[in-house]
Amino acid sequence: MKSMICSKVLLLLTCIFAHGQTGIAQDSWGSYARSVPAKGYEGKKFKLEADVKALPDDDSASARLWARVDKATGSAFFNNMGNRPIRETGWKTYTIEGKIDPAATTIHFGALTELNGKFYYDNFKLWVETATGKWETIYNADFEKDLLGWNDGIGMGTSGINKLYKKALQTDAITKSKVLLVEGVAIPNYGSSKKTGKYADVNGIKLYYEIYGQGPPLVVLHGNGGSIANASGHYPELIKKYKVIGIDSRGQGRSGDTDKPLTYDQMASDVNELLNQLKIDSAFIWGQSDGAILCLVMAMDYPKKVKRVVAFAPNTVPDSSAVFGWAVTAVNRTIKNSTDKKEVKLYEMMRDYPNISYPKLGMITAPCLIMGGDRDVIRPEHLVKMFQSIPNSQLCILPGATHGGAWEQQERFLSIMNDFFLKPFKMPTTEDWFKE
């Protein structure tokens, strides 16, 4: 399957920051938070309000409010204004409304900042509706005295703790009152970097890419509906070893598109042409989901450009022989119900492609590492069949991992990938043990 599903999950995890992994875009956002007990307010409506203004330095930089209601195990409510990023330079009041679960134990809330800039917050208020139309203030912070009770993070381990952000009380020039200032000045901005990002004229479109680091070239290809930013948590380590070339695939991220249907063959051609323009004769390639399919197409159609391939959760056909039936159903449902033309176009590609035969895989000469999670959207037997079809191949199924295993087990994944790329390629066989 591809990674429209994956990219949505990753985006959700990045925004929700409720996943066990701490590496996903951890350096690009941070949170400053407060918690109050939910006891006595179970089952009631609540409203979080604060005054916010933002002076963003990056195009995608923003401020947000967020609120989460926790139960003894798990969360019952979450909102981080994912579709309402704050970039207004003047003071404005913003609100999040929700309901406190009958089994709730704690209400967490606070300030969330993304990328670089100065972000100002004041007059945090948390109300609970104690009777119809009657609201009681259970928390109020105007920051006139101190930041007592506020802490880095989101109340879930290290998630949201980002020491690259500085917090301080400051007197606002307009309101003359003290406010909370959260400032980011050196936050990595992978995927939307004014300094590093470039466009190449490729096959009739503008293809967006970013290059970081020195060493052997490594092309990073994201999943369906994603962008360069999806691998933000991986880049700091990868840059230490490789010349990392992140690419936004056609019709995704910041790259352009045409009116024609999307295909993996076309997107692989885009990657090949970019490498030609960059005068890179061959490269390692890591692809996730849709990007993993592109890895294999590159290895088949442009073999001279490919040194080695790490393909995490690819598929060679779009039906239930390769992906689980529930995923096929979800793709068809989205195509039927979505009003977003771009989303439909991406899902139609997942519905119709790829269509790669196992004998065609057998033509690949570059060493390939086929990876996936043991709880992936891709059937494990399909990953095994791909591994068996590629002459120079290795197989790795991460235990206890989903379609996002490269993020869920980032340290393990990077170790395996680095070994595959940088150490001599081997295909040992147990059969040799039994030869006379």
Give a description of the structure.
With 436 residues, the protein is α+β, with helices and mostly antiparallel strands. It has two domains: 161 residues, Jelly Rolls (Sandwich); 228 residues, 3-Layer(aba) Sandwich (Rossmann fold). The chain is built from ten helices and 19 strands. An eight-stranded mixed β-sheet has the order 12-13-15-14-16-17-18-19, sandwiched between helices. Strands 2, 5, 7, 8, 10 and 11 form a six-stranded antiparallel β-sheet that branches. Strand 3 and strand 4 form a beta hairpin. Helix 3 crosses helix 4 and helix 5 packs antiparallel against helix 6. The two termini are 44 Å apart. The N terminus is likely disordered.
Question: Quick recap of the structure?
Answer:
23% of the residues lie in helices and 33% in strands. It is of the alpha+beta class.
| Helix-and-strand structural type | alpha+beta
Question: How many beta-strand runs?
Answer: 19
Instruction: State the shape.
Output: elongated
Q: Unreliable segments (pLDDT under 50, ≥5 consecutive)?
A: 1-25
Largest sheet: number of strands, sense, barrel closure: 8 strands, mixed
First-residue to last-residue Cα separation:
44 Å
Strand content: 25-35%
What is the mean predicted local confidence, pLDDT? 92
Radius of gyration: 24 Å
CATH superfamily grouping of the largest domain: Alpha/Beta hydrolase fold, catalytic domain
Number of domains: 2
Q: Label the CATH architecture of the largest domain.
A: 3-Layer(aba) Sandwich
What is the CATH third-level topology name of the largest domain? Answer: Rossmann fold
Report the helical percentage: 10-25%
